Amino acid sequence: MAKLSANEYEELINSISETLTNSTSLRKFGQKRFGKKNLWIGVSGYKHQIDVSLKSDEEILLVECKHWNVRITPGVFFDFFGRLIDIRNHLKYNNKSLRGTIVTKTGWTTGVETAIKYYSQFCSVFQVNEVSEIEDMIHTHYITVPSIRSEVAYGHHTIIQEPTNSDNDIIVKASSSSDVTIIWDTETQKK
Predict the structure, then answer these.
(1) C or N terminus of the chain, fewer CB within 10 Å?
(2) Rounded to two decimals, what is the model's pTM?
């Protein structure tokens, strides 16, 4: 099999972009765009070229592709994260949920893992090979669940989420419904 060029890798990621999100809205109704003319304006006025994007009425997923022979570093992550913040803060996208994803063919350093764990509500990373197989990921999905406490596993980690407001609503982080391992009612403390 011939090696893909950077542009061909972007085309490949565009073709599977709906697999990089758990959002039904983006999976079913997301409008795909990619390439040099895929520009997103930030609050700064700067037009950011985004490799691949999926956009629905409610949500936006912006994807940065790194077809490199080395693992991505925290500098790459924070560069993309800054671009996401600039775009997210523009009034044009104010009413939409915006997330970012970095896709790499070679993986990432432990520094990226540290950053992603803290900023996982905004950004994910995926390792996708040249035949479109997802080999690794740090990815979370957010759902609101009233009046429960959850233990959730994702990647190599397990977290406990407690209610975060007076309504006992919490955010459950999971890459799929199969990742939720224990859920119980906080009032009765029963599973």
Answers:
(1) N
(2) 0.72
Express each pLDDT in 67-114 by its tens digit: 999 999 999 999 999 999 999 999 888 788 899 999 999 999 999 999
Does residue 58 belong to any structural domain of this protein? yes
Average pLDDT, the chain: 77
* H-assigned helices in the chain: 6-15, 24-29, 74-88, 110-119
Helix 74-88 vs helix 110-119: angle between axes, to the nearest 10 degrees?
30
Burial class (CB in 10 A: 0-12, 13-18, 19+), 11: middle
**Residue corresponding to tokens 């990432």:** 108
Domain count for the chain: 2
Provide the 10 A C-beta neighbour count for residue 57.
10
Select the more confidently predicted residue: 190 or 38.
Answer: 38
d(CA 120, CA 106): 20
Q: Which domain holds residue 94?
A: 6-139
Mean pLDDT, residues 141-161 taken together: 38
Does one domain contain both 84 and 129? yes
